[in-house]
Amino acid sequence: MIPQLYLPGFEVPFRQLANESGSQSDSQEYRYHHDWSSDVQEGMPLKIYTMGRFALVRDGEAIEFGRKAPRRALELLKAIIAMGGRDVSQENLTSMLWPDSEGDAAHRIFDTTLHRLRKLIGYEQALVMRDGRVSLDNRNCWVDVWAFERILGEISAVLPYASRKDDFRILGRLTKNLQRLYQNHFLHSEDLANWSVSLRERLRSKFIHQLVELGLFWERAGDWSMAISCYQKGLDVDDLIETFHQHLMVCYLQTGRYSEGMAVYRHCRQVLSVVLGIKPAPETEQIYQTMIRRNPLISTG
Fold this sequence. Notes:
By secondary structure, this protein is of the alpha+beta class. Helix content is 57%, strand content 8%. Helix 7 (194-221) runs parallel beside helix 9 (242-254), helix 8 (224-237) runs antiparallel to helix 9 and helix 10 packs antiparallel against helix 11 (282-294). The longest helix is centred in the last third of the chain and has 28 residues, at 194-221.
């Protein structure tokens, strides 16, 4: 469903961002007691990046795998993260990664691979095995997926009630952190595996939804630069979502950047035609026609 657009002169109401299920007192209590520490990766000995290009950073330096990367060990690590990273069943991991192995053979493969993974990352305590379940220890290990979820939680706690200067400052920082963290879809450069699809789509959906909500907030606040950054980031990761094209055009319309807005329309029309075989929605055409009427370089002939 396409969000309602804020277009001066159009009879289209602006989407309300208030959360009717919450209360102002709840928001204030959370605001004053939360330290907004999204960037807790500082000081963590091991950092794992999965949103975009996969990377491991140990003590501030990227781990280089060379030509013969330990594929099986890395695949185990990625699967652990895809399954939540905490209390992941050994049985589920072996059945997903090595479906042709059973019983003692599967157990031996898992133990050998886990040993190699611990040796690879260099921190024995980062991987905890207990009662047939494996976990990444968040006291020694930072994972971008976890940080992403934390930022979403912080945004959800502030966004519905934001009204003060401090709220805008916090949301500005969180918006930038969210955009910087989500480099691309989960394991984007990897071959798609059955066990990674669910998390990839779930993170993608959350990111797109949050970008739209933040973009609408910044539009309402009149901060067109922040709104543009949200919609442009959305197009960077998925330019088939027409909502991002629409709202980016609105932002350029509001700031008098007509040529940039018309370029967005042309890109939208082309990508929808080539990839999906469809035309832009009536709402998109409506914004484009408004832009043509207001563009002095066109209206004056």
